[in-house]
């Protein structure tokens, strides 16, 4: 009988642990679903902008339309390059500050790229940066990304 009583506290502890992990997982799933719904509906920005990420990344409505026209092959290319350059983080900034955003744009490359909204790439979402990167690739090839392009 002493064996049964020694198992009960362990069983209760395991059950509580499973309950806690299940609650955390469910909360995470619900939160990510709400984030995706906000992004699809235009987010909390003005003028169709979507705010994402840890900062104030914007996706003006124009870039949603442009992204919808990007071919699947170019979307996959963009995902691979962004993953290689920054871990796909639109807020990434290299230690020296020269390279910025998911695609590690220089400020000059960002400013002169086709479809660039100007400003600083880290002010814009991954989607906006990806549209600019795809159009820059069409103009300049993979030269701006000598390692990852």
Structure description:
With 149 residues, this protein is mainly α. It has five helices and no strands. Helix 2 crosses helix 5. The radius of gyration is 22 Å and the shape is elongated. 26% of the residues are buried. The model is unreliable at 32-54 (pLDDT under 50).
Instruction: Examine the secondary-structure arrangement and name the CATH architecture of the largest domain.
Output: Orthogonal Bundle
The level of helicity is 55-70%
Low-confidence spans: 32-54
Q: Could you spell the SSE succession in H and E letters?
A: HHHHH
Portion in beta strands: under 5%
Question: Treating each run of at least 4 consecutive H or I residues as one helix, how many helices?
Answer: 5
Task: Return the CATH class of the largest domain.
Answer: Mainly Alpha
Structural class: mainly alpha
Number of domains: 2
**Beta-strand segment tally:** 0
- Largest sheet report: none
Shape assignment: elongated
Q: What is the average per-residue confidence, as pLDDT, rounded to a whole number? A: 78
Radius of gyration: 22 Å
Distance between the termini: 67 Å
CATH topology type of the largest domain: Lysozyme
